[in-house]
């Protein structure tokens, strides 16, 4: 890095005690002399041959070698002699003698005298100067520079080859150019980083000194290295930018090809094995278990499709990302791929959904059919059991339950028809996704099965309705039977109550003929009510007999109701006849008594006949006697009208009348007794 007084570069050749290889030295000199620029070389070199640790023959050989290596560039050779004695005459004479032939001046000088020719600031400490120089540092920097230069030059060639190859040729050639040599031999980022670090180091040494910050001028080789490094870095950045673009294009093309390949895989599977799976699944099953098995199989098919649909979602996101990048040349192809993928996936998804809905509808249809079948079985079982109710209320309850079951069956059949029609409508649309396959035969089997189930349920329901009609008629007749039996028993109770009322309350005979006649008329109306009650009971019992014959059963109550009715009616008629006889006797008694008691004394001829009084007395006695006699029934039982006090009161009233008649009789006889005496 030092310079002589002519601004020529100083080249120092340190020699050592070991044998020096001239070949290596020649190569080293060639390398060192290749570093400076031509301008620097034109100013010449001052060569310092440090022979203090070497022999004269070696020094001489080195000096002579300079003639062959750099004869024109060397202006002065300073041989630093050792402290030991050399033959001055020989050495001086030798170099002086060879001056014209060598082409440069050779000076033999001591180290302390070297400053006569070269400024101390341009000499290193080895020669008593102040020039700071670290050979290992220079060597390391030079190695880094050489490595960077080599790697960057090689990298530039590779990048240029890659970039130029990418610029030339058609798309097919671009695709064929992708091989193992596509990637550079070294990492461009690493080389660029090395170059930047080297340039930064070189630029830093220009302004900052080492070892305390003493300012110094950089060596010419370093000044020369800076533009070389900068030029290489600029070229590298340019080629690397182009290379990155090429890589981006290649990466995009590779990604596009991968997407296209994956899209075709998805499309081929969905239109191939996926569609074939759906083509083979056309049945709906003939029961709940069969439909559930088909649903399970369909879920397995959906699971396989889900894996491909997940790939579709991923591919769609990748395509959307590429579309957002906005590369015009790929937009059409990407949109076409996206459209193709979406069409196939949506069509397949629609087919899966249609199949799932069809199987769900079939499952619901079979579920409703099974429920309806169970309802019909329950209704039929209820109809096959003979009815043996205890009373009319239980029959009404059973009839209500029967009607509810029939209504439930009607609703179930209506629901089955709705489900069946919905399923038939879906099956009719199955051909729309059959990919040209004729599904008429398969659909016909499904349609026949559905219609067969609905027709079978309709027939079973019709049979049950017919049986329900028969059972309803029978149960209504039984209700009527029980009602007739209950009403007949009620008629017996009513007739018994009338009989009891007749015995206990119909006891008065009247105070006169008019009142007795009124009582007699009331009694006849009372008898008419009893007669109507008896006739009503007889009619009910006759209806019971007819219903029992129709139902082919024996009544449990009408067997003893008719004898009871007849027995009570017989007792009532006997009691009524007795009551009529007493009232009629009372009417005759009161009429005769009132007639006699109301006659005037001026008409005695009307009472001449004693027989009239005797007849009244006889009627009165007879009436009194009947009041004490009980009513005797055919079974030998006896009943009295009213209580003994009631009968005593009625008898007392009759006796009162008989006394009045007797008194009247005496009054009439007194005039007859006084007439003969006068």
UniProtKB/TrEMBL annotation:
Keywords: Repeat. Residues 1-135 form the CRAL-TRIO domain. Pfam families: CRAL_TRIO_2, Spectrin_SESTD1. It comes from the Eukaryota. Gene3D superfamilies: 1.20.58.60. PROSITE patterns: CRAL_TRIO (PS50191). One of its GO terms (molecular function) is phosphatidylinositol-5-phosphate binding. Belongs to the SOLO family. PANTHER family: SEC14 DOMAIN AND SPECTRIN REPEAT-CONTAINING PROTEIN 1. This is SEC14 domain and spectrin repeat-containing protein 1.
């Amino acid at each position: 890095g030092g310079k002589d007084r002519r601004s020529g570069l100083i080249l120092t050749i340190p020699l050592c005690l070991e044998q020096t290889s001239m070949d290596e030295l020649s190569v080293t000199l060639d390398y060192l002399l290749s570093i400076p620029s031509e301008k620097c070389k034109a100013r010449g070199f001052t060569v310092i041959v440090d022979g203090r640790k070497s022999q004269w023959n070696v020094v001489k050989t080195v000096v002579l070698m300079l003639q062959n290596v750099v004869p024109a560039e060397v202006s002065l050779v300073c041989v630093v002699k050792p402290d030991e004695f050399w033959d001055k005459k020989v050495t001086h004479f030798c170099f002086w003698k060879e001056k014209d032939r060598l082409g440069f001046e050779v000076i033999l000088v001591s180290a302390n005298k070297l400053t006569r020719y070269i400024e101390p600031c341009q000499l290193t400490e080895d020669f008593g100067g102040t020039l700071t120089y670290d050979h290992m540092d220079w060597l390391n920097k030079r190695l880094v520079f050489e490595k960077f230069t080599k790697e960057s030059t090689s990298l530039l060639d590779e990048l240029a080859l890659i970039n130029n190859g990418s610029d030339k040729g058609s798309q097919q050639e671009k695709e064929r150019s992708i091989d193992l040599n596509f990637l550079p031999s070294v990492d461009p980022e690493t080389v660029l980083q090395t170059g930047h670090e080297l340039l930064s180091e070189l630029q830093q040494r220009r302004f900052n000194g080492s070892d305390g910050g003493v300012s110094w001028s950089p060596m010419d080789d370093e000044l020369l290295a800076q533009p070389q490094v900068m030029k290489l870095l600029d070229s590298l950045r340019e080629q690397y930018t182009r290379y990155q673009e090429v890589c981006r294009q290649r990466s995009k093309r590779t990604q596009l090809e991968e997407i296209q390949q994956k899209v075709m895989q998805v499309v081929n599977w969905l239109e191939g094995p996926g569609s074939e799976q759906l083509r083979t699944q056309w049945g709906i099953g003939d029961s709940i278990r069969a439909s559930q098995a088909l649903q399970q199989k369909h879920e397995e098919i959906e699971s396989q499709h889900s894996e491909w649909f997940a790939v579709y979602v991923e591919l769609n996101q990748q395509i959307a990302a590429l579309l957002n990048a906005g590369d015009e040349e790929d937009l059409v192809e990407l949109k076409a791929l996206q459209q193709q993928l979406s069409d196939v996936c949506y069509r397949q998804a629609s087919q899966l959904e249609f199949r799932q809905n069809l199987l769900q509808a079939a499952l619901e249809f079979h579920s409703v059919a099974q429920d309806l079948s169970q309802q019909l079985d329950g209704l039929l079982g209820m109809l096959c059991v003979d009815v043996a109710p205890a009373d009319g209320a239980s029959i009404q309850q059973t009839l209500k339950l029967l009607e509810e079951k029939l209504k439930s069956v009607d609703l179930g059949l209506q629901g089955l028809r709705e489900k069946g029609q919905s399923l038939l409508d879906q099956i009719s649309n199955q051909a729309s996704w059959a990919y040209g396959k004729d599904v008429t035969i398969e659909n016909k089997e499904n349609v026949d099965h559905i219609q067969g189930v609905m027709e079978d349920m309709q027939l079973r329901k019709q049979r049950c309705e017919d049986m329900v009609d028969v059972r309803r008629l029978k149960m209504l007749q039984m209700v009527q039977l029980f009602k007739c039996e209950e009403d007949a028993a009620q008629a017996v109770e009513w007739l018994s109550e009338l009989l009891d009322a007749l015995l206990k309350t119909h006891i008065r005979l009247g105070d006169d003929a008019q009142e007795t006649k009124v009582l007699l008329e009331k009694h006849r109306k009372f008898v008419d009510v009893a007669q109507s009650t008896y006739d009503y009971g007889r009619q009910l019992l006759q209806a019971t007999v007819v219903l029992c014959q129709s139902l082919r059963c024996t009544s449990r109550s009408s067997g003893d109701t008719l004898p009871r009715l007849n027995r009570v009616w017989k007792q009532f008629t006997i009691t009524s006849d007795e009551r009529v006889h007493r009232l009629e006797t009372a009417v005759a008694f009161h009429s005769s008594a009132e007639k006699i008691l109301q006659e005037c004394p001026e008409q005695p001829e009307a009472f001449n006949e004693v027989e009239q009084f005797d007849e009244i007395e006889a009627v009165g006695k007879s009436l009194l006697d009947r009041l004490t006699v009980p009513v005797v029934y055919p079974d030998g039982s006896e009943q009295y009208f009213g209580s003994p006090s009631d009968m005593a009161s009625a008898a007392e009233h009759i006796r009162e009348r008989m006394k009045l008649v007797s008194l009247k009789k005496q009054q009439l006889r007194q005039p007859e007794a006084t007439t003969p005496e006068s």
